Amino acid sequence: ARPRVGYFYVGNQTSSVFGELLRKSLVRDYKSVPIVVNEQTTAYDATVTMFLEDVGTLFVVRDAGILCGVLSRKDLLKLAIGQTALKEVPISIAMTRMPNIYTVTPETSIYDAGKLLIHAQVDSLPVVVPSESANGQWEVVGRVTKTTITRLFVELGESKQV
Amino acid sequence: ARPRVGYFYVGNQTSSVFGELLRKSLVRDYKSVPIVVNEQTTAYDATVTMFLEDVGTLFVVRDAGILCGVLSRKDLLKLAIGQTALKEVPISIAMTRMPNIYTVTPETSIYDAGKLLIHAQVDSLPVVVPSESANGQWEVVGRVTKTTITRLFVELGESKQV
């Protein structure tokens, strides 16, 4: 039988070129604007902000945009089914805190960001850079979410150049 | 200057082969199990089910798995910030109802499912087939979410064959 070398060659070529492409595509070129609140925000106001900004995750920052927490819809729902009055509690009691937050930088590849979203089981990752004013702290400069990845997936399927 | 024909050829080849691959990959091979509740479930119990099953969206069904609604974390949070007592209201007051629900079938391509997730601005799509018992109704047989797409994106980046 005729060996289907050409067929397999094209297949492997395609998938390795595609893998390389995803590793070369950086978060800096695909990230969205981060939506931030501060720690004193009430759970009620944070929920309203999520609706107004149409996001599922808020990043919690201190002065100069230093990342100190992440708040998801899941965190807020957990409060809501408790005895908690959403208008009376600050989000600091419900958020995930630094250093327990998974982050990426603008130089992280889109492939690694996708992998981290799956591994960490979160919908959204803060994009951070080292703070210029606060030593050892991180400033939030963007967000990468499962929506970012899904949108890119569709663009790739449309055969657009990345 | 030497024309970089080979370079561009490989690029276009790659992206069109990739696009074709996404169009040939079907929802049937990538869908997850649907998590369903019925219309009389309270908002409180639905929230608990979301936590126990670790999903962000529930499908609401009548007998024999007929799809009648979709309930997201967002729908529940909207209730929570209202005056609503989550233990006292059925989810039927908060869910999106048929026929206003975006669905896919097992034969839908993964590419089209990704496109619909972005276009419809939802996190999860019910996978449905025509009901054998109820004429003109749809039975839920799976779910496709932004997590499904993100996971596939990472697999493709690992250069696995699809």
TrEMBL record, chains A, B:
- Highest taxon of the lineage: Bacteria
Entry keyword set? CBS domain, Repeat
Q: Where is the CBS domain?
A: 30-86, 95-159
Its name, as the record gives it, is Transcriptional regulator
Q: Tell me the organism.
A: Ferroacidibacillus organovorans
